[in-house]
Amino acid sequence: MTATTTDTGVPARRSARTSGRLLLAGALAGPIFFASATTQMLTRAGFDITRHPISQLSTGDLGWIQILTFVLAGTGALALAVGVRRTLTEGIGRRALPILVGVFGAGLVAAGVFTMDPEKGFPAGTPEGPVAQMSWHGIAHSAAAAVAFTALAVAAVVMSVRCARRRSAPPAVPGAVLSAVAALVLLVPMSPDRMSVQIAVNGLVAFTWTTVLAVSLRRAA
User: Fold this and answer.
1) CA 219, CA 64: separation in Å to the nearest integer?
2) What is the DSSP string of 62-74?
C-alpha cells in the first residue's frame, strides 16, 4: 500500500510543479512587457505616449525589441492558459477561461509578428500625421490586438461570474470586483483623441488582471 501511494503521489507532485511553472510564466508576462515598454518609451527618441501607441515601438531599427516583447508576453499568456486549464477543473468557466486567455496570448504574438505602420513622426524621420493608407500588416496588427483584448474582457466577465457564484470562498468578492472592473475598462470604446493613452491603460489593466489570476491560482494549487 505504501509503494502504491508513493507511486501515485510522484506524478501528482510533478503535475503540480508543472502547473506552477506555467502559472509563474503567466504571472511574469505583464511585468516583463511593461518593464520593456517603459524602458523603450523613456529612451527612444521622439516617442510620446500621448501621440504614439505602445505598438509603435515595434517600428524602426530598434523595433525588434518590442516585437520580441510582444512575443514573450504572448507566450507567457499561452502558458497561463494551459495553467488555467490544468488548475480549474470544475465550476463555471473551467472550459471557457483557458480558451479565452489562450486567444489573448495568441493575439499578442500575432500583434508582435504583424507590426503597425510608422506615423506621426515616429520613428525619427517619419512624416507627421497619420499614415495615408494602412498596410496589410498594420491591419493585421490592429485586428489581432482587438481580438486579444476582447477575448480577455470576456474572460474577465466569466471570472467575475465564477467568483460571484462562489460566495463561500474568502477571495470571491474582491475577485469578482477586480474582474468586473477589468472587463469594464477593456470594453470601453476607444477615444480617437486619447487612443494611445487608453491603449496603454488597457494593457496595464489586462496584464494586472492576468498577473493576479496567475498568482491566485498558483497559491491555490
Assistant:
1) 35
2) THHHHHHHHHHHH
